[in-house]
Amino acid sequence: MLEVVGIVPDEALLAGWRRRAERALGWLGWSERELVARRHASGVSLAVRAPCDQLFTATELNEWALCATLAELEPARTEELMTALLAAALENAADPASVIPPLLEEAGARARLQTLAAREAQPALQRLLAAAHGLQVVLDETTLTLGSGTGAHNFLLSALPTADEVPWADVHGVPTAVVTGSNGKTTTVRLLAACATAAGRLAGYNCTDGVFLGGERVESGDYSGPAGARRVLRDSRVQTAVLETARGGLLRRGLALLTADVAIVTNVSADHFGEYGIHDLDALAEVKLSVARLLSAGSGLLVLNADDAVLCACAASQPADLRRGWFAQDADHPQLVAQRAAGGATCGVRDGVLWLAQAGAETPLGVIANMPLAVGGSAAYNVANLAAAALGAVALGIAPATIAGVFECFGAAPSDNPGRLMRFEVGGVQVLVDYAHNPAGLCGLLTVAEHLRGGQGRLGLILGHAGNRLDDDIRALAQVAAAFRPALVVVKEDEAHLRGRALGEIPRLLRAELLRLGLPDAVLPMCSTELEAARCALGWAKPGDVLALPVHSVLAREAVLAMLPLEARAAARRAARPPPPPARR
């Protein structure tokens, strides 16, 4: 795919690109000849479908079709375009001496593309993929994996076996769920993994904190994309795979797998607009819903949030024969009522109880007020995460009673869900450590903080943002904070996520917006690191206050947690545990 920026994508340009690309696909004999030109606010995305062993050639084909059209429309730019193409080819080549100089003239371009395609072709790979029809397949630049988890077999592309040499009887997949959405992905992933573990399976999952196998972190960092998914699927110990699938990975690298049993879309909210041609909620919803392509009609389950109007509208375009499971805060939401009437799966709250419906029967999963993750019902977003996870878990073959048992205790210990709504009491101050990274997430966190404050004490928070957001998105975060009228906002640098911004740029934007909204200068200190901001807020707080600490770097979060007294953390774990059930008579 090419992102075309700074060039007007008029009809003449797109028509010329399409004609040339179609001819080039014919030269190479590629059977699937799909082209997509998607206009958006900052330009146009030009995509070409290609065989998996022809991706570099496809990029060269795409660039030639575009640049040859530009040269035809603007002949004066021909030399400039040739120079740019040659520079790119040399920069990306492992061996510059092997580079065939790009040509815009058609006969030369055809010969060049055919040579490149022949160099890149891997017929042994294609034969194996054909033989593996219907199986899970994971592929990257070095390794082919047939099957997944306990049924995974990994082969180096440089030493592929023949189809007859593969032990096909031992190749199989494992129950697999993918989870995407703007908020709640990691919590939902961890809930699913906890349910699988309680069912006696070794669960592997990837998320923004790393890759985890059987509860052990084997990789640290943001692994919410294809690299994390591959790491989980390729491990022969994994019996159930739960894969966080973030927007960035989808847009940059696509989906790492071919099939899944469950695909969950938690919600869509304004975040990351302006990147990769995504400028509004409808486009973002389409990106998230791409996970539905992993599902087979009649067997896979697409789990969707009925309370999200944009997601509901976009989901209507999904194939009618794709099984859906709907969740909502209200078990009697019209969408859920209609779904149950048709014999489908739903999950929602009725009279304070979370109800799971499937195959015409409803099962109670527990009282929301007794679920630590729901914080007495004030964490509505976590109620949604619980409902989504319940639908996903039962579709993975996990019994409702097992799911209910997990929901009764998950979140009682901070280690259950690191970085997400972790609750502590420090010297009479209630402290919430969370990841809230966009306006919707921050609103949910501060709603919980207000519930815990109960009209007493003061509300304080720390506030920062990653650099790869539009200025309006950054101001929107400040607007959410200001709406809760906090007594303190420590404006922080998110130093681990500058992403192209200058030091101090984001804090200045946030503070200026908070001042414009009427917060006094005296309640808006600025700190240059996340740790310094947390220390400042903790130093300000008095007994009875509530602090909301959105911390985004894993290292900063670990440093913040280390500041909290061990005895306070132990007390928080004890206080968060639900009371034991009454003794049976």
Counting DSSP E segments of at least 2 residues, the number of strands comes to: 23
Strand arrangement, largest sheet?
10-9-8-11-7-12-13-14-15-16-17
Distance linking N and C termini: 67 Å
Helix-and-strand structural type: alpha/beta
Per CATH, the architecture of the largest domain is: 3-Layer(aba) Sandwich
Counting structural domains, the number is: 4
Strand content: 15-25%
Biggest sheet architecture: 11 strands, mixed
- The total of helices stands at 19
Shape: globular
The CATH top-level class label of the largest domain: Alpha Beta
Mean pLDDT over the residues? 92
Question: For the CA atoms, what is the radius of gyration?
Answer: 26 Å
Structure in words:
The chain is an alpha/beta fold. Helices cover 39% and strands 20% of the residues. The chain has four domains: 2-120, no CATH class; 134-170, no CATH class; 176-410, Mur-like, catalytic domain (UDP-N-acetylmuramoyl-L-alanine:D-glutamate ligase); 422-576, Protein-Tyrosine Phosphatase, Chain A (Alpha-Beta Complex). Strand 13 (301-305), helix 10 (309-315) and strand 14 form a beta-alpha-beta unit. Helix 1 packs across helix 2, helix 2 packs antiparallel against helix 4 (106-120) and helix 6 (185-198) crosses helix 12. Residues 579-585 have low confidence and may be disordered.
